[in-house]
Amino acid sequence: MNPSDASSTSRVHVSLGERSYSIAFSTGELGSKVVETIQSLGPVSHLVIIADQAVEPHVLTIQQSLRKLELRQNTIFVQSGEGSKSVALIADLWNQMLDAKTDRASVVVAVGGGVIGDLAGFAAASYARGLRFLQIPTTLLAMVDSSVGGKTGINLPKAKNMVGAFWQPSAVIIDTDTLDTLADREYRSGLAEIVKYGVILDQQFFQFLEANADAILKRDPICLRHIIVRSCELKAQVVEQDERETTGLRAILNYGHTFAHAIEAATAYGQLLHGEAVAIGMNMAARLAVQLGMFTNEETQRQLKLLQRFQLPTEFSESTPAKLWSLMQHDKKVELGQLHFILPTHIGHVERRSGVTQAQAIEAIHVTER
Amino acid sequence: MNPSDASSTSRVHVSLGERSYSIAFSTGELGSKVVETIQSLGPVSHLVIIADQAVEPHVLTIQQSLRKLELRQNTIFVQSGEGSKSVALIADLWNQMLDAKTDRASVVVAVGGGVIGDLAGFAAASYARGLRFLQIPTTLLAMVDSSVGGKTGINLPKAKNMVGAFWQPSAVIIDTDTLDTLADREYRSGLAEIVKYGVILDQQFFQFLEANADAILKRDPICLRHIIVRSCELKAQVVEQDERETTGLRAILNYGHTFAHAIEAATAYGQLLHGEAVAIGMNMAARLAVQLGMFTNEETQRQLKLLQRFQLPTEFSESTPAKLWSLMQHDKKVELGQLHFILPTHIGHVERRSGVTQAQAIEAIHVTER
Known about the structure:
The structure is a homodimer.
Chain A: H1 3-7, E1 11-14, E2 21-26, H2 30-39, E3 46-52, H3 56-66, E4 72-78, H4 87-99, E5 106-112, H5 114-126, E6 132-137, H6 140-144, E7 151-156, E8 159-166, E9 171-175, H7 184-201, H8 203-211, H9 213-217, H10 221-241, H11 257-266, H12 274-291, H13 297-309, H14 321-328, E10 341-346, E11 349-353, H15 358-365
Parallel strand pairs in A: 2-9, 3-4, 3-5, 5-6, 6-9
Antiparallel strand pairs in A: 1-2, 7-8, 10-11
Helix pairs in contact in A: 2-3, 7-8, 7-12, 11-12, 11-14, 12-13, 12-15, 14-15
């Protein structure tokens, strides 16, 4: 893999039949890209921008550029943080959209991280039984994760992402300049999902991450563009083959997530960033795979080292393993009463395993001294 | 049209590609049909029956028959009435489904009228991003309306059906015996939608309704089966060509509904049954069509007479026409700022019209003495 190839890629196509769309990559051209994209959508009556308050400067750029189109626009600011993915907040959004006279030819423009994308995406999916929406992710995590796949939703008090829809965006715009103001901790949280793509699908990409860890941490523009584009390509390959998570293939993207969701639930979605929980979850999943004789200790260490190099947490001891096990039973991947784990066989490949016992899971959760 | 043909039809197929499904018709065989249908769905982990308290005897039949399958089952009873289609109630359903350990291989079984179907359908569409659901309509209105088309949803305080999803059932079972306990007023409300199919699509069917009005009011089994099957066939023809209401064709099913939704909103969805509001709306729409020179006075009278023969209301004077006009502007059929009306050109055919002025609409709303 030559990083300069991917860094010059300006578009990744996600092929989903009549629900296909493109991800456009740019650097410092957000305003013109947004105008171009909206113009490509056909008749539009009105725009509802749903945005994270924290990215207000980017929202101003978007609003100003869109004024050229002489369309009525409304902006609704939402706080980022998992707490916003609530029934109360989605109900508030629906009512605000109605007050803004949102109609079936309106387009929802989501500007922010994963929380905003999930929330605005579900608002778009459910308002008037479905509106078009344009996604503008402004965190590394959202760029490489929620920009591909159409998963939208909210949390219930006892379960994350339990309510929602598969709802594909009409287009996605990723402008790396929007990362300029992203805090380092948030940035590193995004790196956890990027490491995940290497472990589940692409050993070469994993090697690239190892070889360029310093440049990546320093946000080197060429490296940055490469890892985002490659992550989107990898995720698109999976989603194209299993859009609605029915064949089991798409489940591989949940590597580390069964543990991560339980950890997030145990901390009331507050303390850890999603990518941090995923980093911990990947480490636990690797340990579980070792226990089951699927994966080596050496590879577990190799994954651990890369996560640590990206300054990500890899252990969790603030809840009892038994509590986490119980929370996992609420995971929506539980199917026919069976909890499935995605576990690595080697770096670059994972498999789906059921029949994991409580004792085995608890052993993997326990902090191990090595 | 020979009524005995349709009355012996046991199945109507709704062709929607990978979302195709069948409506099975039966008389007094609900229990065995439900078992047969669930068995045809592939692996099922668990059943969530969401049912109207008022049809408890039918629910008991279903529960008992399903016990043969040795599947875990939970039943959630909901009050019928538009008031149940609220954000609070859907949130309550989501949480109850989670507590019942509903997973992605669960099947939602909706037993009741339109309100239950809309609510349970949206719960199925949104829980875990989409579960299979089996619809068992137990009112005439739900049998001929919500059993075809996949519209699900809830109301916002200021707008009916504003939040929801297009979510096709996996199967529908219509057993006419479930109508035995249906109150006459509810039964007649269903007849309004049946008259609608005649006006918008099938002059012969309209003539059949005129010629057999007495038998229909007496719930003659052969007539009853015929009018339900024919209504489902007509609706399926439309939905198959425009599943998501994008080409404009499906909008013809909304004949009378722009007025009806405003009337229902003005009475806080409480006073009139949906079919009653539709009967009034059809009469107003016909008057509007006459004003616009599209439709004759004679045909308006013919429609009026049939509605009156079915003892349906045809006028509404409990709100000002200006108030109704204002409420119509919130209708989700408003597109690109334009309110569209579905208006008849003759009995058996309607067209979509925009550009109706406030004065014209108000004139059509006013009670006219003839």
